Amino acid sequence: MTPEEFREHGHALIDWIADYVEHVERHPVASPVAPGDVRAALPPEPPAAREPFADVLRDVERVIVPGLTHWQHPSFFAYFPANSSYPSILGELLSAGLGVQGMSWVTSPACTELETLVLDWMVTLLGLPERFRSDSATGGGVIHGSASEAALASILAARWRSTGGEVNDAGVAGSAAGLVAYATAQAHSSVEKGLRIAGFGTQQLRVVPHDGAFAMRPDALAAMVREDRAAGLRPFWVCSTRGTTSSMAFDPTSAIADVAADNGMWLHVDAAMSGIGALAPEHRWVNDGVERADSCCTNPHKWMGVNFDCDLFWTADRAALLGALSILPAYLRSAAAASGAVIDYRDWQIPLGRRFRALKLWFTIRDGGAIDAAAMIRRHVDLTQQLAAWVREDPRFEVVAPHPLNLLCVRLRAGDEATDGLIERANATGAALFTRTVLDGASALRVSVGGRATQERHVRAAWDLLRGLAGGGA
Ligand code: PLP
Predict the structure, then answer these.
(1) From the alpha carbon of 150, which atom of ligand 1 is closest?
(2) Exposure winner among 341, 397, 404, 453, fewest CB in 10 A?
(3) Ligand 1 centre from 127 Cα, in Å?
(4) Does any domain span residue 17?
(5) Single pTM value for the model
(6) Nearest-CA neighbor of 145 among 450, 360, 375?
(7) What is the pLDDT of residue 473?
(8) pLDDT by residue (tens digit) across 133-150?
(9) Where in the sequence is the domain holding 337, given as residue range(s)?
């Protein structure tokens, strides 16, 4: 592609993206294609010769778009949101255009220093404690690809700290025998996955009972820790989720921190979805207790319009993180690193290579994105409360979990089969998309109100859809 062609196609593609975003509502939310349809619509072998870019774009429209679930659709109420925004898309584009690697300060100083700056900005914007700032005595923040990576990084740091660093020499079998971790059954599956990757099986994960609101019972945690210690085991890591995936429950982080502090455990706070809610000062409670955590994470790629991937991970104990992840082969040495004056983010994450992800966050914040997100968050919370009021007026439905923020879990009183059937029928219409979960053994329909373009009329239409398909009179 020549520079002239790049300019021409680039401008066309930007136009295409703007049209897509502005008119995403004309598509069914979920793709109607059957397994194999997308592949079957494309040539089985790679092209023998160069093809015009216009043909590629035509195939995007003909084959790719019909095979998409439209996450930017205002009637997308599934999972949790993955919002993008125009400044963020431009930041992503610039990152690709610059093509730099930011694994060390020396491999692109601006990549590192901008990231450090915006992570500190986010501490301010979210009202997080000073101890997570990079200019604090022991803390700092980094952009990870996902909250799953953040959970793994925190487990590795905790494992390093609780073995006095011995794990790096002796390995898990040699030094980490008897270590046990704690979370509720409501914690995200990335907790169990992270533990597995770190060498711990299901037997080393204690599932702490939750209360009627699906939040961890700190008394049960304390009792389990006591029993484990009496049995000669070594509690080392506990996850407090602020906003669980199934029902958006909030573990009592401060009470959990008491148990962690008494027993020398690492406290990780997973606020992947809800933590960003603190951009609206009246919702800062979402991060209650996080000031006592050893690490925490939240995802601008969910609720701040910074497109995937952008997870913010902070620790108050960067020495443990660096102890766990820092390896310095000769080809990565630099005078800057040796001076101790710079951050090498490769030591804060799993991979070596890293993209210039700070750009999209920086562009978004400078374009007013934090202010826009705060307004959006308020709107989503209000819409969720409005929806809950509508649901309560219909005797066929019940609300099955607290809903202080922007997730509502409902079920049909007629039972699981009726609830599952309703989810299937509603999703099959293409007019909206919901996710099923199971709470206390019973099916529930999650309504996650998080789309950047979601307005009252979309929530109203979603409720009309559900009411209309619910059956059973009323
Ligand atoms: N933690 C919680 C509470 C989540 O809700 C999710 C995803 O929705 C994750 C972790 C995993 O997030 P990621 O996709 O960034 O790994």
Answers:
(1) 16
(2) 341
(3) 21
(4) yes
(5) 0.96
(6) 360
(7) 56
(8) 999 999 999 999 999 999
(9) 94-366
